[in-house]
Amino acid sequence: MKIEIDRGACVKSGQCIYLHPELYALDAEDFPKTTVESIGDDLIEGAEESVELCPASALALVAKAD
């Protein structure tokens, strides 16, 4: 699994970064970016929560292509 961020939908609330700094950081344009390539079992709960709580629905969990 990986997290995709729709920059067009993102409102830069920072909620994802605040709640899960282990998964997100700010890029040079103050958009969130993921800090992990792949979501393992240890991070899946936080990833699911961040997707669910994103105020703009700009985050999505998707299967990682091999």
Task: Considering the chains and any ligands shown, give keywords for the structure.
single chain, 66 residues, alpha+beta, Alpha-Beta Plaits, two-stranded antiparallel sheet, two-stranded antiparallel ribbon, 2 helices, 21% strand
Number of DSSP strands?
Answer: 4
CATH topology: Alpha-Beta Plaits
Sheet with the most strands, sense and barrel status: 2 strands, antiparallel
From the spread of the alpha carbons, the general shape counts as: globular
Order of helices and strands: EHEEHE
Low-confidence stretches: none
Q: What structural class do helix, strand and pairing data support?
A: alpha+beta
Strand composition percent: 15-25%
Strand order, sheet with most strands: 1-4
Radius of gyration: 11 Å
Number of helices: 2
* Integer count of domains: 1
